[in-house]
Design a protein that fits this description.
17 helices, 36% helix, globular, signal
């Protein structure tokens, strides 16, 4: 049953709507082990006098929590924003860290390393035309700042109607272009709202483009994936892409900076999201699951769900050249926890490039952070039942840089047990 909640808001819109559906029994019928509350819904945002603008979310309460009234003020609440730009957070939901995964036969399975063992989870599809979110307004959002306004409106409405979650400890996490979206969103939240924002987590983070293109090519050479001849070709393309930024040729920047132009022809079957894999399963089974249950998720019949929207990717061409280091500096100054995590084998957003931009921050305590030594962190390997080194971490006060061994761009997919331990560590530092 679809519930309609209508209320007056102090935002620009006079009347706003939340459409929420309790999905617990739906999932429990498909996966009897479900022992937590599940909800999906749409929140109408923006100018509703002329357009229908709806952002989709999916909510999973922490394991064993079957009612919102059981949520405690000190509970952890993660809002997950995925990247692209233009890729659905439901990809992470079903393929990375949500409690349920879909197999090739469309059967559901419980994820042993689900992050809802530690926190309540909300996955938001944004901006409009990403995943299950849509609008009747022509044109696309083109930047992280405008996109953030609608997410804040969604959360404001949701918290007004769900006081228990509003009191929980809010963390905004994501990957890839989430490393651009999230600092902008978190800065606006801190400046414009009273949300209980505690920290952000950004992985494989595209945050300071001008220093992240060329290190990827160097990393491919260092790993022995390319030879000197291919390195020269790719470096030439990378340098031309940086020149395109200076010339404000933003679409050219995207084309020239995308090493995938050369990747398949030059390297062969390596999977660029994690170079140790060949013929990688891209996890598109969840797309069929959603499209096979459109009515259940209230997805309009005229919309087909896709994991990513290339039109949004291109619409954000200029945005993809803008640094968000000032936003990260602001969050650190406001004593918001900033947790940067990175897969060792990611060649979409390279380890070298991310570590480079972290060291360019202007936060007043960065000189002291730089002096700290990296330390190793451990996890229990479920196959051997032995403690193993998961990666390294460098921390000082609010800033943490965590590297995960043998992980690529989707760290929780590649190293689920280590990533689960990483989240535990985040909550405890």
């Amino acid at each position: 049953m679809l519930f309609f909640i209508i209320f007056i808001t102090l935002l620009d819109v006079s009347i706003s709507l939340i459409y929420s559906k309790d999905q617990t029994n739906f999932y429990k019928n498909l996966l009897p082990s479900v022992n937590y509350y599940i909800e999906t819904g749409y929140v109408s945002v923006g100018d509703l006098t002329k357009y229908e603008n709806r952002l989709f979310y999916s909510l999973y309460l922490k394991e064993t929590i079957t009612k919102k009234t059981e949520i405690k003020p000190d509970d952890e609440f993660i809002v997950w924003i995925y990247g692209g730009p233009g890729c659905s957070s439901q990809d992470s939901n079903f393929n990375e860290n949500g409690p349920i995964r879909v197999d090739d036969d469309q059967k559901l399975h419980a994820r042993e390393t689900s992050w809802n063992k530690l926190a309540h989870l909300m996955y938001i599809d944004q901006p409009f035309y990403t995943g299950m979110s849509y609008s009747t307004k022509e044109g696309l959002i083109t930047n992280s700042w405008d996109a953030a306004d609608y997410v804040i409106e969604l959360l404001t409405q949701y918290f007004q109607q769900n006081k228990e979650l509003a009191k929980a400890r809010l963390h905004i996490w994501g990957e890839s272009y989430g490393g651009h979206y999230i600092p902008v969103l978190a800065e606006k939240i801190k400046k414009q709202t009273q949300f209980n924002l505690v920290g952000i987590g950004i992985g494989g983070s595209w945050s300071h483009p001008k220093v992240q293109v060329l290190p990827t090519v160097q990393q491919l050479l260092n790993y022995g994936v390319i030879d000197q001849y291919r390195y020269n070709l790719m470096m030439k393309s990378g340098i031309e892409s940086l020149d395109a930024i200076d010339n404000k040729e933003f679409e050219k920047f995207l084309i020239m900076s995308d090493e995938e132009i050369f990747f398949n022809d030059i390297i062969g079957p390596n999977f660029r999201y994690n170079i140790q894999y060949y013929d990688y399963d891209d996890g598109e089974q969840y797309e069929d699951f959603i499209n096979n249950h459109k009515q259940q998720f209230d997805l309009p019949e005229n919309i087909t769900f896709y994991g990513c929207n290339q039109d949004i990717y291109m619409a954000f061409a200029e945005d993809q050249t803008i640094s968000v280091l000032p936003q990260i500096d602001y969050l650190l100054q406001q004593e918001i926890k900033v947790f940067v995590f990175q897969g060792q084998l990611d060649t979409v957003v390279s380890l070298n490039g991310v570590e480079y931009w972290v060291n360019l921050l202007k936060w007043k305590d960065l000189p002291l952070w730089k002096k700290q030594k990296k330390s190793s962190w451990k996890f229990i390997n479920p196959k051997t039942k032995m403690e193993e080194t998961a990666g390294t971490i460098k921390s000082y006060k609010q800033l943490h840089f965590c590297m995960v061994y043998n992980a690529g761009h989707m760290t929780p997919t590649d190293q689920p047990e280590a990533s689960f331990q990483m989240l535990k560590n985040y909550f405890n530092i």
